[in-house]
Write a structure and sequence with these properties.
Strands 1-5-4-3-2 form a 5-stranded antiparallel β-sheet, covered by helices on one side. By secondary structure, the protein is an alpha+beta fold. Helices cover 28% and strands 42% of the residues. This is Molybdopterin cofactor biosynthesis MoaD-related C-terminal domain-containing protein.
């Protein structure tokens, strides 16, 4: 079993939930913690909090715990999910 927890900043929780569903998952609840299950994997959106970067700059951080049955399932999920959360700076 493969497990990993990610902290994603600056992306709304609703978008992250949509991305997990687009990766083949099905949401099992509407309130935190939100469980999303897919083929050989599960994601649990644990919490959302505001992170202070400077005195005037705050961003939202969402914590997601991923669990996969095997390395192949985890790799497939992460390849798809990371493309969805990729942001280009500038």
């Amino acid at each position: 079993m493969i497990e990993q927890t990610l902290e994603l900043r600056g992306i709304p929780l609703s978008h992250l939930l949509s991305y997990l569903i687009e990766c083949g998952g099905t949401a099992k609840s509407d309130t935190l913690p939100i469980f999303v299950t897919g083929d050989g994997w599960q994601a649990e959106i644990l919490r959302e909090e505001t992170v202070t970067i400077t005195s005037r700059f705050r961003v939202t951080a969402v914590f997601i715990h991923f669990t996969a049955a095997d390395e192949a399932s985890f790799t497939r999920l992460m390849e798809r999910f990371r493309l969805k959360v990729l942001r280009v700076g500038g």
